[in-house]
Amino acid sequence: MGGRTGHRDAPARTGGGSGHGKDGGVKPGGKEAEVYPVMGEKQRSWAAGLPGAVLGVLLFLAIGAGASAAAPDKRGDAVVTVTGSVTRPNRPPFESFQDGYFAHLNLSFDRAHAFSRDDLRRLGMHRIVLRYPNWPKAIVFRGPTLGEVLAAAGATGRSVTVRALDGYGVQIPAEVAARSDVILAVEADGQRLGLGGRGPAWLVCPKGTLPDQDPDTDSGLVWAVFHIAVE
What we know:
Blueprint: E1 13-14, E2 34-36, H1 52-68, E3 80-84, H2 100-104, E4 112-115, H3 117-123, E5 125-130, E6 139-143, H4 146-153, E7 159-164, E8 168-173, H5 174-177, E9 183-185, E10 187-188, E11 191-192, E12 202-204, E13 225-230
Parallel strand pairs: 1-8, 3-13
Antiparallel strand pairs: 2-5, 3-4, 5-6, 6-10, 7-8, 7-13, 9-12, 10-11
């Protein structure tokens, strides 16, 4: 998705067509995005006055909870899933019934890291303002860099394919995906990117970042992103 007028129920593919735009990697250029860190909540020392026995029980429960959380299943909260060559999986391997939409697009995987909206926001909300000739106005995007998403998943591949809900994908070399101005936006003009619009996420970057990109369109800026494959 990205410049298309409709959806295609077709197997996943990389590039081509009159949809999102042309495939390709990325060449140097573009301004560095501004960083807006997300602050965590301050922890409270509420246990200071508890009896030692109670504290011991709480510590035991906390250790047990931590052990059970070592391999969580994040499928239920996922809006974007990174699959393939990842070292920090947080959900089970592909299963055709549970992962029905991946199966619909003929996609399967052994290792995957699933991100919720909150997960993506916690990685960092960077701000970038872009305007393409086929847009009605400039848009303020916010979200983590693609590199931050890949790092959180423990990606180790040489390239990534960013894929939309209709199966359209654009392949990007790892060195390009690591750039600070390649953003996986989750907000546009202060509003969440939702399903039925351009969400759940939108891959954005300055004009000229993608090689062979049509200078008059936003080709290659994949919207409705739900999947990133690492190879």
